[in-house]
């Protein structure tokens, strides 16, 4: 895969069909916080309420074809120096380096766009080794284990916290390099 084949673009209402497909992908669902949707209409409603209106949400494209999402949620008030990144790629495209490139592009972009941002963090289920590798390849540091940090399917889950700082060598401020 060519690095420049992976691009990010803003989420659009017309992307709903892609999101419904991704939301129903059992391999993606395994580590995401949303509950399975009972109907396609419920998935579209979730998409319209959650993804379209995020402060920073981008569709991950491979040669122009939507294959996933990366989003960054800023903290507010005195905590605005940090934000949290989340991402997923259609399981049909796993193992191609797409998530790694998308996270790299997103991290560089938000550190440029949000001058006040000092820390970008990610929370990853302890069993999601591929996602942990994505973050490490981009330059995130594993900071520690957070026990029973979130619920997945009603069960408390342990997670690892990862962070990337604006001063870390992995941030080069030259998007696309």
Question: How do the helices and strands line up, and which of them pair or pack?
Answer:
Blueprint: E1 6-10, H1 16-23, H2 26-29, H3 40-51, E2 56-62, E3 65-74, E4 82-89, H4 98-113, E5 119-125, H5 129-138, E6 141-152, E7 155-165
Parallel strand pairs: 4-5
Antiparallel strand pairs: 1-2, 2-3, 3-4, 5-7, 6-7
Helix pairs in contact: 1-3, 4-5
Structure notes:
The chain is of the alpha+beta class. It contains 5 helices and 7 strands; from the N terminus they run βαααβββαβαββ. It has helices at 16-23, 26-29, 40-51, 98-113, 129-138; strands at 6-10, 56-62, 65-74, 82-89, 119-125, 141-152, 155-165. Strands 1-2-3-4-5-7-6 form a 7-stranded mixed beta sheet, with helices on both faces. Strand 4, helix 4 and strand 5 (119-125) form a beta-alpha-beta unit. Helix 4 packs across helix 5 (129-138). The chain starts with 5 loop residues before the first strand and ends in a 12-residue tail after the last strand. 27% of the residues are buried.
């Amino acid at each position: 895969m060519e690095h420049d084949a992976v691009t990010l673009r803003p989420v659009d209402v017309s992307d709903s069909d892609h999101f419904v497909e991704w939301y129903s992908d059992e391999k993606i669902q395994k580590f995401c916080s949303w509950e399975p949707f009972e109907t396609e209409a419920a998935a579209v409603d979730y998409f319209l309420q959650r993804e379209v209106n995020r402060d920073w949400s981008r569709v991950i494209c491979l040669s122009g074809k939507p294959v996933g999402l990366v989003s960054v949620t800023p903290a507010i008030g005195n905590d605005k120096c940090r934000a949290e990144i989340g991402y997923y790629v259609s399981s049909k495209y796993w193992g191609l380096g797409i998530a790694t490139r998308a996270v790299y592009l997103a991290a560089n972009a938000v550190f440029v766009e949000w001058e006040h941002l000092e820390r970008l963090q990610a929370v990853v289920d302890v069993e999601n080794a591929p996602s942990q590798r994505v973050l490490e390849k981009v330059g995130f540091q594993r900071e520690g284990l957070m026990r029973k940090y979130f619920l997945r399917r009603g069960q408390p889950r342990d997670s690892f916290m990862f962070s990337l700082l604006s001063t870390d060598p992995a941030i080069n401020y030259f998007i696309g390099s």
